Amino acid sequence: MVYRYKATIAGNKIFLREYEIKGTISLYALHLYLQDDLGFAPDQIVMFRGLDKNNKVKAHYGLFDIGDGTMDSITLEKAILSGFSKLLYVYDTFKDRSITLELLSKEEELARRAYPRLIAEKGKNPDQFSDNYDDFEQMIELNDSEPLFQADELPEGEEG
Prior knowledge:
Blueprint: E1 2-8, E2 16-22, H1 27-38, E3 47-51, E4 57-62, H2 76-81, E5 86-92, E6 97-107, E7 117-122, H3 136-139
Antiparallel strand pairs: 1-2, 1-6, 2-7, 3-4, 3-5, 5-6
C-alpha cells in the first residue's frame, strides 16, 4: 500500500508538501527522505510523535528507544495500525519545532514508480535553525511598475 500524506507547519499557511510513501518504509528511512527533501542537517537529533484522533501525543519514536520503539523498528503501516493517522516529524528537539504529517488517502502501489516521492509543494523549505518560518517570496507580490519605497515629498522650494 502507498499512503498520501500532507506535510504542514502549525500556524503557517505558506508551507505545504504532499508525499506518497510506501507503508513498508521505516520511520528512520522516512526521516532520511524528509531530511534530504527539506535540506536539513544530518547531524541533528530528530523524532516522530504519533498523534491520536484528538491530536494528543501517544507515542515517541526516536533514533534511540525513548519508550515506544526506535524509528528503524517502526514502519509507517505499523504507526497507522496503531491509530496514528497524524505524525509529528520533530526536526528541532531543543525548540520543539515540527512538521505535521497528516494521512490523506491510501492507494495501490504502482509498478515502475519510486517511493517515497514528492507530489506537490508550496513555499520554501523551512530553515532548520531559524525560530520562524519566513517565505517572503510568497508573502510579497509586487507589480514591477510599483516602487518598493516611495520618497517623502518635500514642500516646494525645499531640498532634501
